Amino acid sequence: MSAFIEASNLVKTYQAGKTTVTALNSLSLEIPQGTVQALLGPNGAGKTTTVKVLTTLITPDSGSASINGVDVVDHPEDIRRMIGVSGQYAAVDENLTGFENLDMVGRLYHLSPAQSKARARELIDMFDLVEAGDRVVKGFSGGMRRRIDLAGALVVNPPVLFLDEPTTGLDPRSRLALWGVIKTLVGQGTTVLLTTQYLEEADQLADNIAVIDEGRVIAQGTSDELKLLVGGQRVEVTVHDVADIDKARSVLARHVTGDITSGADSRTLVGPVENAAKTLQKVLKDLADAGVELNDAGMRRPTLDDVFLQLTGHAVLQEENA
Ligand SMILES: Nc1ncnc2c1ncn2[C@@H]1O[C@H](COP(=O)(O)OP(=O)(O)OP(=O)(O)O)[C@@H](O)[C@H]1O
Ligand SMILES: [Mg+2]
Fold it and tell me: If you take atom 16 of ligand 1, which residue's CA is the nearest one?
C-alpha cells in the first residue's frame, strides 16, 4: 500500500432497463493523507458512484479500493469507523430540530450527552444555523438542510471526510464558510475527498484534482499543472455587432499562438497569446483600424473550464440542483 486512499481500476455498471450503464470504467485514484482531493466532472461522470464505493454503500463489479490499507469491500465496518460522509442529497431527520439531528449523530458515535450537545452547539454556530437550530428540519430551505447534513459529517472529526458536491445549493456566504471549515480540518490532518462541478471550488481547496469523464480519470494534477496543459494567457474580445465576428477573428489570428475558440457567447473570441498585455494593445489597435467596435476586451489566465474543454471537447455543465 502506498497512498492513504487508493482506488485501483474500479468498474461499476448499472442495469437501467435493457441498457447497461457503465458508471465507472476503470477508475483509479491515489490520495495522500492530510490532503484534499477533488473529483471534478460533469453530470453523470461517475463522481457519486466513486464516493459510494469508497464509503462502502455499493460494491464495485471489479477493481479494489482501500483506506489506510483497509479494503473497503472486505472490511466495511472498519471503514465506516474512519469516515464521515455528506451525500449529494441531504440525509436528515425531518421531524427533529437542527440541534437534535446533530446531537443524535453524536450519540450514535458514542459521545457522552454533554460532549454531544456541546459539539452540536459548536457546529450550529459554525454553519450559521443559530436561528434554525431549534426548528424542525421539515421547514428548512434546501441550503439549510445541506448545512445540517454537512455539520453531521463533522460531528466526530473523522480522519477521512467524503463530501459529495458539498456546496451545490449553498449561497455564497455559506459556501465561503464551508471552505473555511474544510481548510481548518485539513490543517488538523483530515484527508478530504470532495466532488464538485465548480472549477473554482477545486481551484480553491484541492491539493490535487482528478478530472473525471465517463467513469474514468482523464487528467489529474494540481490546478496549476492542469492549467499548464492548456498553455498560458488568453486575450478575449467581445464585438459589439455580431456581423463583425469574422473580421475580428482574422485580426486576432495575426496575434495568437494557437487556436481561436468561441467564448461564452457568439460575439466573443478567445485566443492564447504570449505577452498578453502588449498583445492586447496591438489587437485593440488593429481592431480599431479595421473598424470593429467592441463591447469588451481583456486578458485572462486559463481557467479549469478551459482545461475541461481542451480535454473533453465539451464544457462543464453548471447545474444548480439544490
Ligand atoms: N442506481 C443507478 N441505476 C442506474 N444508473 C445509475 C445509477 N446510479 C448512477 N447511474 C448512472 O451512472 C452514471 C454515473 O452516475 P453518478 O451519479 O456517479 O454521476 P455524478 O458524476 O455523481 O453526476 P452528478 O454530477 O449528476 O451528481 C450516470 O450515467 C448515471 O445515470
Ligand atoms: Mg453525483
Answer: 46
Nearest bound ligand to the CA of residue 52:
1
**Closest ligand to the CA of 57:** 1
200 with 241, same domain? no
Q: Is 319 a domain residue?
A: no
206 and 258 share one domain: no
Q: Could you tell me the mean pLDDT of each successive run of 10 residues in the chain, 322 residues long?
A: 89 94 97 96 93 95 98 95 82 87 89 94 88 84 85 89 89 85 90 91 93 94 85 90 96 93 88 92 97 95 79 60 38
Q: Which residues contact 53 (CB under 8 A, 6 or more apart)?
A: 7, 10, 12, 24, 59, 60, 65, 72
Range list of β-strands (E), 135-293 = 160-164, 191-196, 208-213, 216-221, 234-239, 261-262, 268-272
Ligand 1 neighbours (beta carbon < 6 A): 14, 16, 21, 23, 41, 43-49, 88, 197
The CA distance from 230 to 259, in Å, is: 11
Same domain flag for 111 and 244 = no
How many domains is the chain built from?
2
pLDDT tens figures, 27-63: 999 999 999 999 998 889 999 999 999 999 999 999 9
- Gap from CA of 164 to ligand 2 centroid (Å): 7
Question: Ligand nearest 41 Cα, by number?
Answer: 1
What lies within 8 Å, CB to CB, of 59 at 6+ separation is: 53, 73
Q: Which protein residue has the closest C-alpha to ligand 1 atom 6?
A: 14
- The CATH code of the domain that includes 290 is 3.30.70.980
What residues make up the domain containing 88?
A: 5-227
Instruction: Please give the mean pLDDT across all residues of the chain.
Output: 89
